């Protein structure tokens, strides 16, 4: 593996190795095998873009002085005998990382993930009955005669999801405007 700079977020360098480690830790978190899977092309770009987002989220957390405690979760990953421990040792060996370096990487990832979860909670709207009815009437033809009462829970979920997605896209755009991001991978 050739290591190089993949991106820069607010003067912090993201390397290709960072992307591989990030992806490996996410595979461990999800329970996916093989843990180490070298990516290239579009898959590598997607991982680097996730790291860019994480970098912007961490910069925002620092800017607003928000800390999120994830140490107990990191410790459970590193605990002797844990299912994840063997995979973490494999990543340490493959990428020449110490346990402390991987713990720091896990802390960054888990903190950013939890901050995004909190953001989602703050932007999740309450959907009114009028909004639900309006959506139902606008799209009644595609519901093929299914009743409003039958579809109401699904419409609520859909409208909330759309509103959250729009709010998150606006938030990410504001982060991109606020923090300097340079993607250095070949286009």
Description:
With 187 residues, this protein is mainly alpha-helical. It has one domain (5-183): Triger factor/SurA peptide-binding fold, CATH 1.10.4030. Helix content is 67%, strand content 6%. The protein has 7 helices and 3 strands; from the N terminus they run ββαααααααβ. It has helices at residues 16-30, 41-63, 71-78, 83-95, 99-123, 129-138, 148-178; strands at 5-9, 12-15, 181-183. The protein has a 3-stranded antiparallel sheet with strand order 2-1-3. A hairpin with a 2-residue loop joins β1 and β2. α1 (16-30) packs across α2, α1 runs antiparallel to α4 (83-95) and α3 crosses α5 (99-123). The radius of gyration is 21 Å and the shape is elongated. The two termini are 20 Å apart. The mean pLDDT is 90.
Which structural class do you get from the secondary structure elements? mainly alpha
User: Measured on Cα atoms, how large is the radius of gyration?
Assistant: 21 Å
Give the strand order, joined by hyphens, for the main sheet. 2-1-3
Highest-level CATH class: Mainly Alpha
CATH fold naming:
Triger factor/SurA peptide-binding fold
> What's the number of domains?
1
- Supply the number of helical segments: 7
Q: Which residues sit in consecutive blocks of at least 5 with pLDDT less than 50?
A: none
Principal-axes geometry comes out as: elongated
**Distance from first to last alpha carbon:** 20 Å
Q: Quick check: average pLDDT? A: 90
Report the sheet-strand fraction: 5-15%
**CATH architectural category:** Orthogonal Bundle
| Main sheet attributes: strand count, strand direction, barrel closure | 3 strands, antiparallel
Succession of helices and strands: EEHHHHHHHE
The count of β-strands is 3
Query: What is the helical fraction, as a range of percent?
Result: 55-70%
